[in-house]
Amino acid sequence: MTDAAAALPQAPAPAPAKAAGPSKMRKILGAVFRGRVAALVCLVLLVWLQRSDFEFVDTARMRVFDIYHQIKPNDLQGALKAKGASERVVMVVDIDEASLSAIGQWPWSRSTVAKLLENINRYQPPSVGFDIVFPEPDRLSPARLAESLDLKGEALEALKDLPDTDRALAEVLKQSRAVLGQAGYGRELAETGTTPIRTPIAEIGNNPRGWLLNFPSLVRNIPELETAAAGRGMFSVNPESDGVIRRVPAVFAVGKDLYPTLSFEMLRVAYQQQALAVRTGLGGIDSVGIPGIGNVPTDQKGRLLIHFSKWDTERYVSAKDVLLGAPAAEALRGKFVLIGTSAEGLKDIRATPIEGGIPGVEIHAMIIESIFTGTLLSRPAHYVGYEIGVLALGALVIIFLTGVVSARWTLIVFVAIAAGMVGTSWYLFAEQRKLLDASFAVVGCFFIYTMVTYANYAREEAQKKQVREAFGRYISPALVAQLADDPNKLRLGGEMRPMTLMFSDVRGFTTISEQFKTDPQGLTGLINRFLSPTTDVILKNRGTIDKYMGDAIMAFWNAPLDDADHAANACRAALRMFEEMDTLNANLKAEAERDKRTYFPLKVGIGLNSGICCVGNMGSHQRFDYSVLGDTVNLASRLEGQSKSYGVGTVVGENCRKLVNDMAFLELDLIAVKGKKEAVRIFTLLGDKDVFESETFKTLEAKHIEMLAAYRSQQWDKAQALIKECRALGLGMDGFYDVMEERIAEFRANPPPANWDGVYVATSK
């Protein structure tokens, strides 16, 4: 080997990064174009998804509006006061738990219901709505009760003479502005033989039936009651897929017939109008008209978008109090009255965006008061166009900015679009009670942003992969990663830092190579079989391969990444390399015996040294390599050469030895290597911590130190005796002790001078 590491034969180094040529530029531009085309295709799909308005899209949108409700619920009482009305326009006569306890289980006798309605009428309500249905004749009517009890004689006749309870309720209904409840049913029911009485609903514009909630059949009241009532309204509220009531149909379709919701029918009866009107455009239903009030906006499916308020428990009057004429019933005076139930057992508890469970009748009360206060929500049809426009514009800006400006600015653009859309949506909800969906545009833009950012990232990763593939064969994976992350490091320059250097070489390789005079490929294969496992060992122990020099390896530790344990890692790598050589030699021996040729084992010498070095990109502006320079490097190279002279596998410099405290080292000599005037203390490495802690090594170490002291004090007989004892302990030091015995024999014949300091002057590298 030469005197300086820089003079050692160099493996070809990759050229520094240059400006991308036309071909590479076309590839990069092509990747950018393909990424943007894919993003544009996704944008088209998102627009189609928005227009199609699938249920999962609609549900996600409404859940965002749920959050708005929770932040700012409707203040109906405040809105009524602002309109000059009292705190409540609607009251509820509640068939609650107390009423069931006092009157008896539900259903009550129709005579009791008649009494309840009669008492309500005393307070002059504009109209009364039943959030219940009477689909069958009263089983408690006297005649039917007699039949069910199988009574005979005078008892039967006496009951038959009593008034029919259904007829009693019908008589009270005729004297009331009462609206009976009806319910849609999901299956066909048997015909009752009479045609349902319907409120006329004028159809303005297109046919609304394709947009409305349509039930196959109707759960209606018995004809006697239906005929007597002033109106009939649907109390079905149709919860959404997650069980939450968000929108209530203003008009229903049952087959081909149209029916109003309970609250609208109560308003029609209160204003003594004959009909309602539904207005339908090309995009769906626009509104439902109530004469005397005006057109109430709906969504395209004819549903009322309720701005929900909190459950108003003060609007409830117990049915028991009304029946008994208690003072609490006075709260009904002049109010719309709904008859419903909050009793848990009657299963009319509903979830809203702001309440986990309220009586269903409360929703009908909210609708009436929302109409009076003008606080229903609306979602104009053209808002869909706005939402699509924002999505398209935002996505296009993100698509064409990504890759042109930094990722930070692209993120700022996305955040600005999202904040603007969310802010506008909230303002319209809070101030104008209009529903503009920000969620789809924000999520869509985020998806596009993520997609193009990932495409950019994937493109950069592909470029980094090219860098790794180009440089990975020459330098450590850690350095490759640094270069891939920061190509600016591909420039000339270096830094001073403490490092550990390794040089390794195959002994007697010239003799081995003579076997391959006619088979150069075989020699190359042998070299690869040696270099591959030893390289893996170095890299696994955090080393960096500087260069290969035929059968030799130069490596270093603590660069480019910090490694506080660099000396120990280098020593571990050296020990593992010998283990790999044992495995390789066993395979080579078996192959030689099989092919009937001479077996020459591969023996490796390793030099290790630690110290301050200059490490960085060395070379010229046209060509350079990441390497290391310094006196520490030169000494490591010399120490590797001395491994053969001392008959050991490793020769370790004193600085490296001082940095490792838990491995088995033995001092070899004080030596002035060729080209150096100052002597250095050198060691050999015998094993790891297990060897270091063994009793055999501790005994050997003590005798070995004593032997070196006798040798340096020219006590040749004592030194030879101690060498014999050391040999008996094993641990592979026989080659070294052979060298020492030869020296002692030479010194016996030619004694060193009296002032000899024990330093051996090397005559070879």
Please provide a written account of the structure:
- With 765 residues, this protein is α/β, with parallel strands linked by helices.
- It folds into four domains: 29-63 and 380-458, no CATH class; 88-138 and 180-373, no CATH class; 495-660, Nucleotide cyclase, GGDEF domain (Alpha-Beta Plaits, 2-Layer Sandwich); 661-765, no CATH class.
- It is 46% helix and 19% strand.
- It is built from 25 helices and 27 strands.
- The strands form six sheets. Strands 19, 20, 21, 22, 23, 24, 25, 26 and 27 form a nine-stranded mixed beta sheet that branches. Strands 1, 2, 3, 6, 7, 15 and 16 form a seven-stranded mixed beta sheet that branches.
- The longest helix has 33 residues, at 439-471.
- The protein is elongated, with a radius of gyration of 48 Å.
- It starts with 21 loop residues before the first helix and ends with a strand.
- Residues 1-25 have low confidence and may be disordered.
